[in-house]
Amino acid sequence: MGMGRRLFNLAAGVSLVLCVAVVLLSFHSNGTEEEFGHFSSNSVWCVGVTWGEAYFEGGNRTYAQQYWFWEHSKPPRVFGETLGGFDYQKSVGHYRVLIPLWVLWLFASILPICWLLKAYRTWKRIVEGRCLACGYDLRATPDRCPECGTLKR
Fold this sequence. Notes:
- The protein is α+β, with helices and mostly antiparallel strands.
- Helices cover 35% and strands 26% of the residues.
- It contains 3 helices and 6 strands.
- The chain has helices at residues 3-28, 101-108, 110-128, and strands at 33-39, 44-50, 53-59, 67-73, 87-91, 94-100.
- The chain has a 6-stranded antiparallel sheet with strand order 4-1-2-3-6-5.
- A hairpin with a 4-residue loop joins strand 1 and strand 2.
- It is elongated.
- The chain starts with a helix and ends in a 25-residue tail after the last helix.
């Protein structure tokens, strides 16, 4: 197996784990809020989930000391009206971006779906007795593909 195939399999596996995590977060975020971030001497940033939406906040604020934080709050904040779950809010020295979790799930599911399609195509070629490289029918020449010269595995 080539390095490109191994990297694709690794990326598809990580993407599948991320996809499952987003689904679990979407169920967990109804009625609670999870937030993770960092305060420093000149800036703040945090990411979080609430009510089926993920958000990123950042800004320029001054704090006396640096620290990381993880917050779990119930009931969660409500961010107000959004356009289909998307929103961008900006004020002086502060901004917030809201994205629905289904969008993150959609992007995270692309690689696992491609991996499944590739696995199905390979399985179908094996069952039908076709060359795995080019798809040529190998029933007449079972040892080597006459089209591309690939040996049967």
